[in-house]
């Protein structure tokens, strides 16, 4: 793809909201104990009042199960909001998302990192700050979003 085919646009991190944050304190967690994370990520798209600005909402959900007692011990949902400019000039391709993959990968990565930080900040002083959080590959997530319908 040569330079004349590249589209330029801007974006900003417009907001972050914790929709759900609940956990049951676990006082007897052993070092290295296993927790299972079920992570879900969804994208939502909306027009704004400004003609050339669109909004992308990325919801990150995490259910955390303590494997030693086979019990859900935390449930977190957070939404990262991004605003973009000039997306209307990017054509849709084969019913896939009209946004360039590298851009969506970047936004998903930012949403995951922000949610991870919120879990550590809000869970400070609880068992949540003691457990290792899994690495999540935003590229793999976006590949699943990019499949034609």
In whole angstroms, the N-to-C terminal distance is: 25 Å
Mean pLDDT: 84
The CATH superfamily is identified as SecB-like
Task: Give the class-level CATH name.
Answer: Alpha Beta
Please give the radius of gyration in angstroms: 18 Å
Number of domains: 1
Uncertain spans, ≥5 residues at pLDDT below 50? none
Q: How many separate helices?
A: 2
The helix-strand sequence is: EEEEHH
Shape: elongated
How many strands?
Answer: 4
Q: What CATH architecture would you give?
A: Roll
Strand order of the largest sheet: 1-4-3-2
Fraction of residues in H or I helices:
10-25%
Give a description of the structure.
20% of the residues lie in helices and 38% in strands. By secondary structure, it is of the alpha+beta class. The protein has one domain: Roll (Bacterial Protein-export protein SecB). The protein has a four-stranded antiparallel beta sheet, with helices on one face. A hairpin with a 5-residue loop joins strand 2 and strand 3. The longest helix has 22 residues.
Question: Gist?
Answer:
This protein is of the alpha+beta class and 149 residues long.
Helices and strands, with pairings:
Elements (H helix, E strand, L loop, with lengths): L9 E14 L11 E13 L5 E14 L4 E15 L15 H22 L15 H8 L4
Antiparallel strand pairs: 1-4, 2-3, 3-4
Helix pairs in contact: 1-2
Features:
149 residues; alpha+beta; Bacterial Protein-export protein SecB; 20% helix; 4-stranded antiparallel β-sheet; 2 helices
